[in-house]
Design brief:
By secondary structure, the protein is mainly β. It has a single domain, classed as Beta Barrel (Sortase, Chain: A), CATH 2.40.260.10. 5% of the residues lie in helices and 40% in strands. The strands form 3 sheets. Strands 3-4-6-7-12-13-11-10 form an 8-stranded mixed barrel. It starts with a strand and ends with a strand. 30% of the residues are buried.
Length: 234
């Protein structure tokens, strides 16, 4: 899926009920690069002069006698305080599709206007909805079919088959396995009517993989269809 997905959500009995989904596709430009401007180093002071401009002296004036060396001490120096180690933040993990394609998961929530977030990179998939250990609801993973001329891992959703295996490795290293149970191709005009069925947070737990494809029509739709692959816990 290349473009943006809009998912209008309501709330019923404390759970998210998806009311309408409209996925529009098109090429996403890469985010602008960030230029870091290095600070300017100060020039080193000239030889024979101090940084403040006064002549530098390497020996004390002759009228001042140097102090005798300090007597030895038996007191051990206190050990330097250890810097506490801050664990690196864990990533949500990776998803492996039935055909062998993989994508890095990026956990996202619905954006302003209830937009279903899409990944910023071809090798990523956004994750919205239920956690993997949830008793019910859909864990929705959205990925690109292509981007700027390159094919994305989610393009294989168009050739996956019933019974294929989806595996997800979470941030803690645990593997979760699912078996493909449904392959759904939805025209964009029909997607809103099926949104709650496909993406809703009611019913048994499942993984829902979604991308775009079919015929390219351009405009706000981009591709004409969406491919939805549903997998149940193995």
């Amino acid at each position: 899926m290349a473009g943006k997905a809009r998912l209008l959500a309501g709330f019923a009995a404390g759970a998210v009920t998806v009311l309408a989904v409209q996925v529009a596709t098109g090429v996403i430009d890469a985010p602008p690069s960030t230029t870091v401007v290095a600070g300017t180093a100060l020039p080193a002071p000239a030889a024979g002069r101090s940084p403040g401009g006064a002549p530098a002296t390497s020996t004390p004036p002759s009228s001042v006698q140097p102090l005798p060396p300090a007597p030895p001490t038996s007191t051990a120096a206190a050990p330097a305080a250890e810097t506490p180690r801050v664990p690196a933040p864990q990533q949500p993990g990776t998803v492996r599709l039935p055909g062998g394609g993989t994508a890095t998961l990026v956990r996202k929530e619905l954006g302003p206007g209830a937009e279903l977030p899409i990944p910023a990179d071809l090798g990523q998939a956004t994750w919205w909805g239920a956690e993997l250990d949830a008793a019910g609801g859909a864990s929705v993973f959205a990925g690109h079919v292509n981007w700027r001329g390159a094919t994305g891992p989610f393009a294989e959703l168009w050739t996956d088959r019933i019974g294929g295996q989806v595996s997800i490795v979470d941030g803690a290293g645990k593997t979760w396995r699912y078996t493909v149970s449904q392959l759904v191709t939805v025209h964009k005009n029909d997607l809103a009517a099926r949104a709650d069925e496909l993406f809703g947070q009611s019913g048994p737990h499942r993984v829902v993989l979604v991308t775009c494809g079919g015929r390219w029509v351009g405009g706000s739709d981009g591709y004409e269809e969406n491919r939805v692959v549903i997998a149940d816990p193995a």
